[in-house]
Amino acid sequence: MQIHEYSGEGLEQLARQSFMPVITRTRPDFRGRMALQEMGEAVTVSRAYSRGSHRTFRTDRMAAKTSGDDVVLFCVHAAGRSHVRQHDRVAELKAGSGVLYEARSAWELLSSGEGRSLTLHFSRDLLPLRTAEITEGCARSMDPVAPAMQMLSGYLDRLFDVADDLTASQRLDAGQAAIDLLAMALRDVTPAVPGDGGPAHVLLDMMRTHVRDHLADPRLGAEELARRHHVSVRHAQTLFERIGTTPGAYLREQRLVAARAMLSDPRYARLGMSDVAAAVGFLNLRTFERAFRRQYGMTPGGWRREHIHPGPAPTTESPKMPPG
């Protein structure tokens, strides 16, 4: 767990390091505290407490610089009142409600008084929804009494508390489970998007989930994935075209994402490179190293050396939140 205390300028710096570049406007007396739990290379859960009004926003120019692995934030407002604006929509947030916003377009968050929040931050390619569905889900307030929202907020709260006791692979699974719950909750608030494929979309979701759940299975490839879901390889390819990829490319990408997370986790520092490769389904070390280098521009060993000790050891003290 990492703990950060900040003022207005510190909030801008923390957001740039942990989430995305933003601009903040605060009063001189603004103060905040944030604790972050990394659930893998691409997923983070954080709790934050702030006192004082602030305006945090991301401009169109900032959004235009977003790379292909841009991020999404889902925030549960535990206390306080805030507004989020994106895509010409404004979500008014009260205690217990949630909101989604994405890095690839401008957004604005206005918050006043004392606030507490719980935020899920992740790479948008982990959310099993189409691009248009994600965009339509942004800046829409999610009702705190809706069953799906209650499940999601309760899960995130508990996940944050137990994350320190999870292994790296358990963190990956738990983080993905949170994203899957979010996808379910978003369907309650997102208008129907033209082209939503009905049964085909459900089957694609099932296949993507199966890939993430069986990365270590070296038998799993495009043909085996199609066979296990009782469709032809061509039909599987057609389904994955909906998200701009192929079954084989998606499987390789997810294996490399999992490997990258293991190589960044101190708990796996003594694990040999062949063992890391096998844990994500690569039987041949050279094939793994070649694929990793193509994807991330460095060898797995180079990635481990740069990321296994990214900085001073973070404190494990939880932030003290006022009763509320």
List the helices and strands and how they pair.
Blueprint: E1 2-6, H1 8-18, E2 23-26, E3 31-40, E4 43-51, E5 54-58, H2 60-64, E6 71-86, E7 89-93, E8 98-102, E9 107-123, H3 131-137, H4 147-162, H5 168-186, H6 199-213, H7 222-228, H8 233-241, H9 247-263, H10 273-279, H11 285-296, H12 300-307
Antiparallel strand pairs: 1-3, 2-5, 3-4, 4-9, 5-9, 6-7, 6-8, 6-9
Helix pairs in contact: 4-5, 7-8, 9-11
Task: Describe the protein.
Helices cover 41% and strands 23% of the residues. With 324 residues, it is α+β, with helices and mostly antiparallel strands. Strands 1, 2, 3, 4, 5, 6, 7, 8 and 9 form a nine-stranded antiparallel beta sheet that branches. The longest helix is centred in the middle third of the chain and has 19 residues, at 168-186. The radius of gyration is 20 Å and the shape is globular.
